[in-house]
Design brief:
The chain is mainly alpha-helical. It has helices spanning 3-22, 30-37, 59-74, 79-89, 99-109, 114-117, 131-136, 141-153, 159-175, 183-192, 202-207, 209-212, 217-224, 248-261, 266-275, 280-295, 302-307, 311-325.
Length: 327
């Protein structure tokens, strides 16, 4: 298969796989996962059911699909069409939605102008769904940044949510064209996309990842799980239990770290994201998208793909994105 087409497919399938693998453990700390399950590698191939059927993804993948479908239908980013598709999501129905996405899209459905619908949330609901924009605009970075920003502002008007959407989309665009990963260049490239003062210290935190990679991974993820969180909000690093907060910066940077721990090993990266605890489905989804963008569909375990709900549709949607983006 064409390498770039494989990476388009790997991105969407990777999102769904990481989301579904993390779903059963959402809200668990690392200590709880380790105490109850050991290293969850032995459980993951069977997608342990937990309230939902095995292999079922959540709102992370649902909204990723919504963005991808809108891009395909409109042959590019169309704000009105994306709003319409988000509103349609309300009747799917949403699976495990976050407050920021759900409350804002309900406002959109009732006719509130999009400029007034977003919540003042720094949650990770924008970063989890943005990967199709990174795929579609991989060869036009200025449009990628603008449309990642707009797609975020529909539901979250906090700078961390906007910056995280840009970081994930830019990471995807970089990795689908990368033949040999140089971590320094990769980190500098994605950091450069969020160097505006409005994004505070986001770029600096990305660049620090190289130092985190030299540390014990458990200690590193405990600290990264709360990076950027400021009082009065509690920082998960203070508990030493180990969990990734649902804050956009901490989730996104933790996902990048999990990918960089083993760039050529999709399975290990996603397992590390889930083992980190906390918002396991979203950290898993973002890690899966990033690793899938670099490794392609061939390196995602087939036993996981077979169990993933709607896997054939996700493949078709990725191929449609690839064909339209490369016309």
């Amino acid at each position: 298969m064409n390498k770039m087409k494989s990476r388009f497919i790997g991105t969407l399938i990777g999102t769904g796989v990481g989301d579904a693998l993390g779903r059963p453990f959402e809200g668990w700390s690392r200590k709880q996962i380790e105490a109850r399950c050991g290293r969850i590698m032995d459980l993951l191939p069977d997608f342990p059911p937990y309230r939902l059927p095995a292999g079922q993804y959540t709102d992370d993948t649902q909204l990723t699909i919504a963005i991808a479908e809108s891009l395909v239908r409109s042959k590019g980013f169309d704000l009105g069409d994306l709003i319409s598709r988000f509103v349609d999501w309300l009747s799917e129905p949403p699976i495990g939605p976050g407050y920021g996405c759900l409350s804002s899209i309900r406002k959109l459905s009732s006719g509130v102008p999009w400029q007034e619908a977003a919540s003042d949330s720094g949650g990770n609901g924008t970063a989890m769904r943005v990967s199709p924009i990174g795929l579609f605009y991989y060869n036009n970075i200025s449009k990628l940044i603008e449309y990642a920003r707009l797609s975020s502002l529909l539901t979250h008007n906090h700078w961390a949510a906007t910056a995280s959407a840009i970081v994930v989309a830019r990471s995807i665009a970089y990795l689908i064209t990368c033949d040999e990963l140089n971590i320094d260049i990769f980190l500098k490239t994605i950091a450069s996309s969020v160097q505006k003062s409005e994004f505070e210290d986001y770029a600096q935190n990305i660049l620090k990842l190289k130092d985190f990679l030299k540390r014990d991974k458990v200690e590193a993820l405990i600290e990264l799980g709360g990076i950027g969180i400021k009082p009065p909000w509690p920082n998960p690093a203070e508990t030493k239990e180990g969990y990734i907060a649902a804050y956009a910066m901490s989730t996104t940077i933790s996902a990048l770290y999990c990918f960089l721990l083993s760039p050529d090993d999709f399975e290990n990266s996603v397992i590390e994201a889930v083992m980190a605890g906390g918002d396991t489905d979203t950290c898993g989804a973002i890690t899966g998208a990033i690793s899938g963008a670099y490794n392609g569909i061939e390196k995602i375990p087939s036993r996981w793909i077979k169990l993933l709900v709607n896997n054939e549709y996700l493949k078709k949607l990725a191929i449609d994105l690839y064909e339209i983006a490369n016309k």
